[in-house]
Amino acid sequence: MRKTVLSVLVALFAVVLMSGVSVAKESAKAKAKAESAVTKGNEPCEPAPVSKVMGTVKSIDPKKGELVLTGEDGKDVTFKITKDQGKKVKAGDKVTVNAEKDVAKRIMKSRGGKPPVGC
Q1: Residue 118 falls within a domain, yes or no?
Q2: What is the total count of domains within the chain?
Q3: Residue-range definition of the domain harbouring residue 96
Q4: DSSP code at position 87
Q5: pTM across the whole model
Q6: For residue 42, what are the CA distances in angstroms to 66, 85, 100, 101?
Q7: Residues 72, 87 share a domain
Q8: Cα separation of 85 and 40, whole Å?
Q9: pLDDT tens, 2-51?
Q10: Distance between CA 21 and CA 23 in Å, rounded?
C-alpha cells in the first residue's frame, strides 16, 4: 500500500513539474509574441533616427507642404514641412534641416560665416 501511495505521489509530482515547464514555455511564447507585436513587419516602433542636412533652399511650397533643399553635395532632397515652417524660409536661404526620414522636424537658418571648429 505504501508503494502504491508513493508511486501516486511521485506521479503527481512529475505531472505538476511538467505542467510548470509547460507554463514556462507558454510564458516564453507569449512574451515572444508580445515583442513581435511591437514591430510592424521588420520596422521597430521606435522613432526614426534624426538626420541633419545642410544646404540651400531650392524651392518651397507651403501649401503643398514641400521644401526642396540642395545639399552641400549638390543633390536635391525633398522634405515634408508644416505651413509654419514654410513661412520662416525662402528660396536661396542657407539652412540646416533636422529630419526624421523625409519629414522636417526643425529648420534653422544659417548665420553665415564659418562653422565653429569641431563641427
Answers
A1: no
A2: 2
A3: 50-109
A4: H
A5: 0.54
A6: 28, 32, 18, 16
A7: yes
A8: 30
A9: 677 667 666 666 666 566 555 455 656 665 555 555 454 555 566 667 78
A10: 5
Q: pLDDT by residue (tens digit) across 80-100?
A: 999 899 888 999 999 999 999
Enter the C-alpha cell of residue 41.
Answer: 513587419
Contact call for residues 57 and 67 (beta carbons, < 8 A): yes
Instruction: Identify the burial level of 24 via C-beta atoms within 10 angstroms of its C-beta, where 0-12 means exposed, 13-18 middle and 19 or more buried.
Output: exposed
CATH of residue 104: 2.40.50.140
| Residues 22 and 58 occupy one common structural domain | no
What are phi and psi for residue 5, nearest 5 degrees?
-65, -45
User: Are 57 and 98 contained in the same domain?
Assistant: yes
Cα gap 57→81, rounded to integer Å: 13
